[in-house]
Structure formats: C-alpha cells, structure tokens
Amino acid sequence: MKKLIVYQIDSFTKEKFKGNPAGVVVNADGLKDSEMQQIARELNNSETAFLFSPDSDDCDGVIRYFSPTIEVPICGHATIAAMYAKALEDNLDSCVLKMKTKIGILPFEIINENGDYQVLMTQGRFELSPTFDDDTEKRMVAALGLNYDDIDTKCPIQIASTGHSKVMIGIKSREKLNTLSPKYNDLAELSTQINCNGYFVFTFDSDNEDILTYGRMFAPAIGINEDPVTGNANGPLAGYLIQNNIVAFKNNEFEFNGRQGEKINRLGTITVKVLVENDKPALIQIKGEAVVIFRTEIEI
Fold it and tell me: What is the phi/psi pair of residue 61, to 5°?
C-alpha cells in the first residue's frame, strides 16, 4: 500500500470555494498512468496535478496533469495549486523550481510573503494561428450562442497557445458574456476539426480600472463544460492582444489583470505579464494566489 498526500486547492483566489479548484498529489512517484487517471476522475476537478522527483539533472521535479478523462500537457491553475501545495508541504522560502512538463522544462517561482505564498508561472512559447474560414467561424459563433453583432470587431477569432491552445473570441458586452448558453455538443464536435479543445470568450467591458478583461472558458471536448479561472487562456490572451496590436505596451512590457468565474460564482483574478521583443510576445507569465480546501491521504 502506498500513502499519497493529496491537496484540494482553489487557485487565483484567497477566498475558499472561489477561483478554480485543482487536486494535487505531492508524492506521485511510482504511480501508473491508469492510477493517475483514476485519481483525477475521483477528485473530479478540471485538472489534478501530480508531482514527481526529478528524473534528470536539469530539473527540480516532474509535473503531470490529468483531467477526469485525459492527460493534458500543461495547466495554469493546477500549476499554481501544485507549487502552493509543495511550498506548504516542504516549508519553502522564496525560490524558483525548474519543473519538467510535457511542453518542456519551465521555471515556476514561489514567492514567500508574510508566511503565505504566491506563484509566478512562466508559460510555454506563444503561438498564434491564422483566422478561420468563414464556415468554421460561423459554426463556432452559433455554437457559443453569439451573433456577429456581439463580436468585438478589433478582435479576430484565432487559436492562441502557450502550450495548451484556446480559441480567442472577443465580444462587446459583459452582460452578453454572462448570459451565454453554449451548445456544448456542437463545440466538442468542432474541437475535433480545429484541433483545439478550449474556447475563451472575453470582453473589455469592465467597471474596475484594475481589471482589463472578464472571460469565460468552455472545453466540453475534454469533459469541462466551463472552467472557472483559466491560466492557459488568460496567458495566451496576453500574447494575442500584443501580436494583434489591440493593446499598448511600454518599455517592452505589458501587464494586466483578468477576471473569470463571475457567472458560475467562482470569481478569481489572474495577473498576466508579457515581455515584448520586436513587437511580439517573447515571454508570458501568470501570477496567482491560492487557498487550501483540504489535505488528506489516499492509500492505494
């Protein structure tokens, strides 16, 4: 029998039962893929992170991520949760951990402030796909429950990625954002054709000068009808905004706060930072807080 130390953590918030919940297994050495998949299904969060000892000299550890149905290459909120759990478990001071993921070795910074932690996650290389053909775009807009009048005309509909791709859809109204009722089966079917599982609908319609965007993220093709607060959507969003010249930046840097989860009462806030080189995003980072819901043990 092996005793697994398991956390349930809400990321991108300090208020319990808000933000985005993730499971974390901090001592996953020896687990089989099938066992990780079963644990992720049992915990039933959008993702569960599994932490392993380093398997080479060039990293401080290995991290893998499972949704209830499949393994995913990277996950923002589960990274925040995993590094927060590790910091608590190991009583860490401020440090940078180089963690091996399915998209390469990434530096995750743990920031110790007044006995609590924030986590700064460096995401993978930014990529932006061309716009869609008219038929695909029309089907996507309809499946999301939108009309073309709702679309923000300065925001082209494109796939953006920092390791786990999302479709970016900018709309004019926060009221419309919060009344969306997508056709999940249609979105899932589209996902197989466009090779992208997530749809991030966002708006600049904010009544708070510290919050640039509000968003919602739908990924029914991987069993997540709606994700509360998504690091792998807000991070790519920053690169998308820079590369399409939608926002201005100074001194080759751009930083903003994105808010998500309002409609489903799991509100959370992500800080996104971008370093810009030659007017294109060169480095994207997300920063977030977290709070523990429970720590327990599983024997398998």
Answer: 170, 175
